[in-house]
Amino acid sequence: MRRRLRNSAGFAGLLALALTAQPHASALQDAHDKLGAGEYGPAAELARAAIAESPTVDAWTALGLALTENGKTSSAEDAFRQAITLQPDAALRARVALALLRVHGEQRDAARGELQTVLDEYRDRSGALLSPELHSLGDAARELANRDAALFRLAVDYYRLAIERDPDNLAVRVTLGDLLLEKHNNADALLSYRGALQRDEAFAPAILGVARSQHFDHNPAARDTASSSLQLQPTLVAAHTFIARLQLETQAYPAADEHLTAALAINPQSLPALSMRATMHYLREEPELLERQLQTIRELAPNYSAVYSLLSELAARTGRYRDAVEFGLIGLTLNDTDWHAMASLGINRLRLGEMRSGRRALELAFRGDPFNVRVKNTLDLLDKLSQQFDTQRSERFVLVAERGRTELLAPYLLPIAEAAYEYYADRYAYQLAHPLRIEVYTEHADFSVRTVGLTGLDILGASFGPVVLLDSPRPGAFGAFNWASALWHEIAHSFHLAMSEYRAPRWFSEGLAVAEERLARPGWGGDVSPGFLQAYHAGKLRNASELEQAFLAPRFANEIPYTYYLASLLIERIESDHGVAALTNLLRNFATEDTSIQAVTEQLGYTPAAFDEWLDDYVRGRFGHALQALFPSPAGSDAAGDYENLLGRGKSAMAAGDLEQAQRLLSAAQALFPEHAGPGSSYHDLANIYRELGDIGRAISQLEQNINIDADDLDAHLQLAALYGDSGDSANAEDIAERALLIQPFNPATHERLAELYETRNELPLAVRERRAVVSLNPEDPVQARFQLAEALHLAGDDQEATSELLRTLEDAPLFEAGLELLLQIRGDHGEPGQSDGAGHEAAQPGI
Amino acid sequence: MKTLYAGILVAAAQFFAAGAVDASQRHLLIVVGLGGEPHYTKLFNEWAAQMAEIAERVLAIAGERITVLQGSAEGDGETPRKEDVLTMLRNTADASTAGDMVMVLLIGHGTARNGRALFNLPGPDLSASELREQLQLFAGRSLVIVNAASSSGAFVRELSDAGRVVITATASGSEHQFAYFGGHFVSAFVADAADKDKDNRVSMLEAFNHARRAVARAYKEDDRILTEHALLDDNGDGVGSRLTEASVADGAIAAKLFLQPSAGQLAGDSPQAREMLALDVRASELVSRIDRLKRRRERLLDEEYYRELESLLVTLAYNRRTLRGVKENHATTLAQ
User: Fold this and answer.
1) Residue B326 and residue A107: Cα distance in Å, rounded?
2) Are B282 and B319 in contact (CB under 8 A)?
3) Half-sphere exposure of A93 (CA within 13 A, CB side)
4) From B325, which residue of chain A is nearest by alpha-carbon distance?
5) Using one digit for the tens of pLDDT, what is the confidence trace for A693-750?
6) Minimal Cα distance from A809: which residue of B?
């Protein structure tokens, strides 16, 4: 009984009033209890019984609420009207509930007017109101807040007051949490949900709130949490709808459909459930069913724009940004104060490179709803872009990066981008509209905001088609990575998105982009690791026909990175057996045809099962030797054939100083699994051993092999460049140092070394490029760095620029003799100013 | 005589106006305090020895003007006590004259107790107020006080005075952990990177900045929180600056004070030496004109600014070239 009271949204006050008529009070209380437990039919019956006994405002209101939950809108409206007619000044809840039923319909303006009237009437009377009534006032303010942002705060204030008035009013705690979550304030939302659960750990709506919060944080526990709320209250329509959404996000359409059917069986007029069904039809590419569903919604609620916000959101989630923009625009034609739709419009326009219109939409969204954290973060970032970022252009690209970094990155990044474009345009026989925009972010938080509007995202690059984003190359939270290969990868996506009209499945596009990296340069595009093969051997990775699920619902921490690599192997196999035309045909077909794996395998001439086997054969064919080395057969277990055993013993021998033994063991290990490179492999250790033994040639060979497999290994690049330099091979030293810049372009020492090498080899334009890079990196000795740039410019024949740099150098260091002497050299030594005979032949004069 | 005297006065005024060239002597006093642990005693003694060696070999300060007060490396009874330090200061005040530059370098540990800033010595510690009193003996000298000890920040307020440079390893008495500043400060005088304006000398400001940055870098490389923040005060307001790039409160005087004499000053009293000195004076004037031009930068068009700058720099270039020639001749003469 105590639990039921709590679940019934705290009607203690009403109960007190109702106790004046005992049988009526009992029926009414039971009605509220049933309502709180989600038993809407029985609740309605009990409310009717209470009305029959004594037709009070509260009884009619309870009936209206129960009928609303069951989608009996017309009858619910009648019930509310009865309550209002009976005693208008005691029917606050009925007035608000009735207006909310009408607010998306043709009587929208009257409904909104009524809500405003209620707010005005009760503005100074909150002291006398009960908790549920304060809850209703909060709902009224929330609904009107789209036209007056200050009402969001009023809504929050009313909800908080309702909680103060009755801490056991759990429903209002959930409502408050939902509002906060809507504004992307997950932390406070979760506090509110937990506040309810502290009072009743079985309060299903609060458990659902926690599930929403987990979903916000990309926590896979959201599904189980939501399911547990349904177990407690099977009629919780919001839970069915939420779980359906989770199913849609993983393409589990039949399961989603089941939950939506259940939701609509409870409430056939649930607009959120109907919207989710519409979204399901969109994602399943069922345009007729989509239109039919939208028509149903229009008939029920002609001004209901939230369906389009939802469509926009899930379209964007699946990479269909153009559709997302279209849906946002439609939503706004129905309701130009749907700030959610406006925010979605803005963010997706920005993704498509429509910077001005995107910003404009976000500014409008912020003005209408200044509490949306995502919008605020994005606008702050746009301010930063305009104030602290620069651009540089090439034929087809615009590079946008932080002031001071653009100049440094452009000479390296733009040529790679142009090369990638030309390569893909030729290979796919497709031209992209350009310019394409490349944005490079130093702060990972900025990159996250640009990508999803919120911080905490765990990727290093993204492509929206016309816009490519890169995390700035630096050894940051995710370690060093090869930014050039990341750029190559993302530009590949730009082509895939355009060719498939944003409909290529993720497994295909990621697999193809990684495979393209591998084709482009040695060491790009990921490499096989012991971890990958262990996961493969253990059966933890998906079959070929299920790769998409790995991206949608990863089952373990490394599943996504391993799946990138596995998908690239599949693409390799497709190209190898069917040619690149098979890949480009698939891309083009995705634009208009079925994108399911069944369709893909059919096009290629396989069943899904045969497809799985085909990939497995390929992986085992390529890495059978490594699999054998990692997992030697138990019978006659041979330490000599055990890779990890040999590797471990080799490293131990090295640590103990036994170089000969270490060399023998590590070499044996390497022979078993030569594809394993980078930190933790045998290559670094063997290089060190050979260096110790004075065998520089072999040391070089080890490092070369290593970086040709693992192009992210900065340390190996730097060591190799130094070895080449020390052995007098400046050509190779240059080449490797250049490759090191593709991982870490912000290391002044690498640029200085390269500058020296280029100067030695008289490659003066490149020397100038490197000297400029050093200057831009805020070196420890800026005067010396700028002087060396001036020298390089002079040697390269650009005396005007050389003089300009020299003057800037000497401005801060006027007694710098080398600089002063260079100045005279550039001027041609015509004597002191004012002491020439005009013919410039005056000899140098004393300085006094 | 009057005319000559006036001419000398003008030249002297030019010297001191430029600030970067003067004919004064340099005096260096190094005090090594209590090390406590053998590791620190050894380190402090190394820093002191290094500073003395740099001062003589690189900065050309005469041996008799370098005083090092330190205990033995083993830390036995020879460690200087407060009265030794005060005596040393009195002796140096007597041996120096107005216009000389005196740098006092305190290497060791410090503490701050009950509002008193202390440099740790065997027996009674040397307080900032006691040091301040003693420094009154140095009227007319350019004083540079460098306290490289922990908890040294409070020395700034006590020792601050017009025209005096005070450098401390820490920003306050509460930064009591071992300070690495001293070692980096010493090595600044032989670090190419410290000579930011490439005039072949390291000013007090350059040494301070070099040490400050080196300390920050060392902590960052070791992934440790920075627990020492060096300060410099030379405007006499009793408040030290950390001298990030944007700071303008302090540094003007420190920028023009060098332990190392100019080439002209080193040359002695020959005609060539006098010529070198005059070239240095002329160079100082040109540098001052460049400084004034830079201050007018906002009011000039780019073309105008850079044209005038180039003209001054070219003149300076010929000045330096001439100086090099005279120096070579001078060196040849001396060798003969």
Assistant:
1) 99
2) yes
3) 21
4) A846
5) 999 999 999 999 999 999 999 889 999 999 999 999 989 999 999 999 998 888 888 8
6) B197
Measured distance CA(B292)–CA(B300) in Å, rounded:
12
- Average pLDDT, integer, range A118-130: 92
Contact A823 B286 (CB under 8 A): no
Cβ within 8 Å of residue B136, ≥6 positions away: none
Name which of B279, B287, B317 is nearest A823 (Cβ-Cβ).
Answer: B317
pLDDT digits (tens, 9 = 90+) for A603-651: 999 999 999 999 999 999 999 999 999 988 765 455 556 999 999 999 9
pLDDT of residue A20: 44
DSSP secondary structure letters along B195-208: -TT-SSS-BHHHHH
- Are A845 and B318 a contacting pair at CB < 8 A? yes
Do B321 and A781 make contact, defined as CB atoms within 8 angstroms? no
Residue B200 burial (CB count, 10 A) = 13
Rg (CA), chain B: 21
Question: Does B290 sit within 8 Å of A848, measured CB to CB?
Answer: no
* CB spacing of A847 vs B287 below 8 angstroms: no
Q: Which of A429-443, A467-481, B286-300 has the lowest mean pLDDT?
A: A467-481
Nearest CA in chain A to B289: A814
Assess B193–A contact: CB distance below 8 Å, yes or no. yes
Which residues of chain B neighbour A827 with C-beta distances below 8 Å? Answer: 314
Distances (CA, A) of A422 to A407, A414, A514, A525: 23, 12, 18, 19
Q: What is the mean pLDDT of chain B?
A: 86
* Average pLDDT of the residues of chain A: 90
**Residues in chain B within 8 Å Cβ distance of A808:** none
Chain segment A139-173, per-residue pLDDT in tens: 999 999 989 988 999 999 999 999 999 999 999 99
What confidence tier does A18 reach under pLDDT thresholds 50, 70, 90? very low
A216 class by beta-carbon count within 10 Å (0-12 exposed, 13-18 middle, 19+ buried): middle
Does residue A619 sit in helix, strand or coil? helix
Encoded tokens for B215: 């300390």
Closest to A409 measured CA to CA, from A423, A421, A394: A394
DSSP labels for A476-524?
Answer: BTTB---HHHHHHHHHHHHHHHHHTTT---HHHHHHHHHHHHHHHSTT-
Residue B332 pLDDT exceeds 50: yes
Chain B residues touching A811 at Cβ < 8 A: 290, 294, 309
CA dihedral A96→A102→A107→A111, nearest 10 degrees, is: 20
Most confident range (mean pLDDT) of A680-689, A739-748, B191-200 is A680-689
pLDDT the model gives residue A641? 64
Asked if B196's CB is within 8 angstroms of A844's CB, the reply is: no
- Dump the DSSP string for A383-449: HHHHHHEEEEE-SSEEEEEETTTHHHHHHHHHHHHHHHHHHHHHHHT----S-EEEEEESSHHHHHH
How many A-B residue pairs are in contact by the CB < 8 A criterion? 101
* Residues of chain B contacting residue A814, judged by C-beta atoms under 8 Å apart: 197, 286-287, 290, 312-313, 316
Q: Which of residues 209-238 of B touch A (CB under 8 A)?
A: 213
